[in-house]
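Inverse folding, one chain.
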């Protein structure tokens, strides 16, 4: 697999055909390239347009761009893997698991040794990763340096460097048992996709692309570096006793709804010691959302919406808000809401009407997120 300049990926499938993937994410599908051919290794030349691959005959082939045709490179075998290093040097892995290099595509292979790997990948700093015996990763500082074992790197069959990844706007839905589901914001009519995760949540805030504040089904908050099964989470101290959370003041402050339907605040930095503090005269609401415009939206026990400009302002009734049980922000002014039927509804701003999101049953909470 190799990353294309627009952040998409050109990948070789298990049947050796070549595919284009908008991202390495299950939020996108892949499409087979025209004139795909069958390869066992692929990389991108320094011109960032020419693809180079190893065919099933262990010869090198090149093509111009995503729509070109593969052309045999004469006298280019025999290798099982090809890597283009950051300095443009071509690095091939031989059938003997030794490394060979050439300065240009027409040069002969030069023996480098450095046994024994099955595949390699070049990083931008000039270092090289290799897949050794046992499917573990080894690293060399530059071509010719010794291999160094990378701890905790098993078991993989291939590696590829990634410059950047596409973040996908995703609407998250939480079911009654806390299971997290998602659908792309650009395709809301799609059915929910269950996210492979051991996390159980009733509310989620994304604080950055790699960190989430989770309100668990036990009503404690957790800081997690992912929503997936591989996530590492830690409980936020003194965080229990709330049933809805949101950020205010640009993330400096967390706002929550207590079991008494009153608002509480605490430091937005979940790593530092903090406690929930009651906001005087703040009730009664069962859910709170802070929009991108910093307007605070509260959901009353009767399903109506109320707003306030800041924590100290009184609640103001918002016409046309009924009837929802929870909300989350939709852009700068809009909202997603959970109807009494367990379906998701959306409105572009507080004054507009709720519109049903197809195929959105049955969830008890929603949250917006940017996921890889």
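Residues assigned per position:
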């Amino acid at each position: 697999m190799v990353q294309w300049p627009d952040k998409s990926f050109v990948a070789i499938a298990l049947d050796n055909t070549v595919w284009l993937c908008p991202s390495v994410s299950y939020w996108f599908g892949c499409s087979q390239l025209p004139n795909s051919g069958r390869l066992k290794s692929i990389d991108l030349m320094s011109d960032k347009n020419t693809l180079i691959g190893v065919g099933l005959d262990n010869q090198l082939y090149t093509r111009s761009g995503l729509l070109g045709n593969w052309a045999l490179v004469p006298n280019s075998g025999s290798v099982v893997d090809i890597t283009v290093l950051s300095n443009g040097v071509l690095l091939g892995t031989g059938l003997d698991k030794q490394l060979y290099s050439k300065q240009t595509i027409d040069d002969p292979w030069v023996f480098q040794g450095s046994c024994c790997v099955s595949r390699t990948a070049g990083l931008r700093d000039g270092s090289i990763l290799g897949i050794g015996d046992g499917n573990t990763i080894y690293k060399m500082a530059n071509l010719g340096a010794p291999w160094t074992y990378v701890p905790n790197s098993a078991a993989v069959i291939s590696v590829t460097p990634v410059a950047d990844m596409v973040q996908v706007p995703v609407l998250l839905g939480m079911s009654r048992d806390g299971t997290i589901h998602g659908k792309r914001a650009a395709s809301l009519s799609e059915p929910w996709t269950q996210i492979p995760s051991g996390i159980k949540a009733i509310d989620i805030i994304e604080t950055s692309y790699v960190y989430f504040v989770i309100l668990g089904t036990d009503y404690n908050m957790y800081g997690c570096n992912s929503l997936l099964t591989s996530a590492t989470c830690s409980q936020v101290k003194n965080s229990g006793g709330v049933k809805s959370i949101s950020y205010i003041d640009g993330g400096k402050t967390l706002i929550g709804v207590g079991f008494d339907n009153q608002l509480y605040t605490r430091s937005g930095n979940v790593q530092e010691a903090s406690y929930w503090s009651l906001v005087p005269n703040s009730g009664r609401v069962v859910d709170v959302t802070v929009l991108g415009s910093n307007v605070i939206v509260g959901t009353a026990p009767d399903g109506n919406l109320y707003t306030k400009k800041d924590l100290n302002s009184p609640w103001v009734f918002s016409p046309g808000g009924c009837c929802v049980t929870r909300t989350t922000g939709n852009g700068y002014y809009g909202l997603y809401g959970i109807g009494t039927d367990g379906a998701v509804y959306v409105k572009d701003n507080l004054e507009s009407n709720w519109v049903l999101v197809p195929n959105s049953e049955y969830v008890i909470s929603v949250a917006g997120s940017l996921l890889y």
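The mean pLDDT is 95. The longest strand covers residues 201-208.
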